[in-house]
Amino acid sequence: MHTFDPFDGALLVDKPAGPTSHDVVDAIRRQFQFKKVGHCGTLDPNATGLLIIVLGRATKLSEKLTTSDKHYAGTIRFGETTDTFDADGQLVASLPVPPLTLDQLNQEAASFIGDQMQTPPMVSAVKKAGVPLYKLARQGLEVPREPRLIHVYRFQFTDYQEPIAQFQILCTKGTYVRSIAHDLGQKIGCGAHLASLRRLAAGPFQVARATPLDRILSLQRPQLEPLVVPFLKVVEMAAS
Fold first, then answer.
1. What's the count of helices (H) and strands (E) in the chain, helices before strands?
2. Superfamily designation of domain 70-201
3. Does the 9-67+203-239 domain belong in CATH 3.40.630.30?
4. Which residues contact 219 (CB under 8 A, 6 or more apart)?
5. What pTM did the predictor assign?
6. Residue of 8, 44, 86, 183 with catalytic role
7. What is the pLDDT of residue 67?
C-alpha cells in the first residue's frame, strides 16, 4: 500500500491576470521549496481563473488532468483585430461594428458548436521542431501549423453592449478561445479579439474551490496543507 505525503496532490489556484502559468509554478516551488511542481493546462498571461497545480507524486497525473474539458467565461471586443487574437497583441485592423443583437450573436455562435479543425495561432505555446511558436512569432516568423480537432459543446452570448459581448464556452482541451473570437469577427465582417477570459472549470474542478494566488503565496507550508486535494481524491475526481 502506497503512503502519500500530504503534499502529494493538487492545488487549485485562482490565477490573476499577468503571470504566465509557468510563473505560477515557479512562485509556488520557491515559496514552499517543493521539488516537483507542474500545472495542468496553460492559461494565457492575461487570462484568469482556475489553474490546477500538481505537487509531488501528483505531477504524474498532469497529462490525465490536462485532457479534461474546459469551461470559460469571457468578453469579445468587436471592430478591432489584433495579431495575437487577444488584447495583448498589436492592433492590425479597425472597422466599424455593424448593428448586432444578442440573438444575432448567438446565431453566429451556434455555427461554432460541434467538431472542427482549428489551427493554433502563431502566438501560442504549441511547439514546432521543439521551439514554442510564440518565440518564432517574436522573430516575425510565420510557420505552417497543423490543424487540430477540437469540440465546442456550448458557446453562448449572455450580454452585448457595443462593442463588447459577454459569453460562456464549454470546449475540449487545446481549444484556443481567442481563435474562435477572431474567426467570429471575420465571419461578421468587422473583426474582433478576445478582450478577457476566465477559466471557470476544468473537468470536475471548479474555480469556486480555488484560492487566489496572492493568498497562497502569503501562507507558510503548514497553512498550505489543508488546501491540497489529496492524491487519491485527485485520482477519483479525474476518473469521474
1. 8, 15
2. Pseudouridine synthase (3.30.2350.10)
3. no
4. 227
5. 0.93
6. 44
7. 87
